[in-house]
Amino acid sequence: MLCGPKGSERRSDLKCGICGRPSELFELPGRAGKLCLSCGADLAISEQLAIEIDAATLSGQETKSLVAEFAHLSQRLLERAQSA
Ligand SMILES: [Zn+2]
Questions:
Q1: What is the pTM of this model?
Q2: How many alpha carbons lie under 13 Å from residue 61 in its C-beta half-sphere?
Q3: Which DSSP helix (H) or strand (E) runs through 25?
Q4: Is 33 left (phi over 0), alpha (psi -120 to 50) or beta?
Q5: How many whole angstroms from 56 Cα to the centroid of ligand 1?
Q6: How much is the pLDDT for 50?
Q7: CA 19 to CA 7: how far, in whole Å?
Q8: Of 26, 36, 47, 53, which has the highest C-beta tally within 10 A?
Q9: How many CB atoms lie within 10 A of CB 81?
Q10: Cross-strand partners of 15
Q11: What protein residues have CB closer than 5 angstroms to ion ligand 1?
Q12: Distance from Cα 45 to the centre of ligand 1, integer Å
């Protein structure tokens, strides 16, 4: 039994940590793994949304549209990860 082809480990270094696409990658601070531009952007937006949802919840504001947007983004990231 083979334990994976030679060189596959090195190549995985050059793939996005979410979608697995070999592309130009960016290292995000505080994160293991590198992400491609579109995954990194989506992740940054979803983190920003999470902060806004927290702030809105604390101040008693309506969060429905923020939560919907957050769910939509999370779904998109998940689908990208699954298609990798
Ligand atoms: Zn990606």
A1: 0.71
A2: 10
A3: strand 25-27
A4: left
A5: 29
A6: 96
A7: 20
A8: 36
A9: 14
A10: 22
A11: 16, 18-19, 36, 39
A12: 14
Q: Indicate the domain borders of the chain.
A: 36-84
> DSSP assignment, residue 23?
S
Amino acid found at 31: R
Tell me how far CA of residue 55 lies from CA of 9, 31, 71, in angstroms: 41, 23, 17
**Nearest alpha-carbon partner for 44 in 57, 62, 26, 61:** 26
**How many angstroms separate the CA atoms of 52 and 64, rounded?**
12
Residue 63 and residue 53 in contact, taking contact as beta carbons nearer than 8 Å: yes
Convert the pLDDT of each residue in 13-65 to its tens digit.
Answer: 688 988 998 888 988 777 668 899 999 999 999 999 999 999 999 999 999 99
d(CA 84, ligand 1 centre) in Å: 9
User: H-helix or E-strand containing 47?
Assistant: helix 37-58
As given in the structure block, the two tokens for residue 40 are 């990194």
Q: How many Cβ atoms are within 10 Å of 46's Cβ, its own excluded?
A: 18
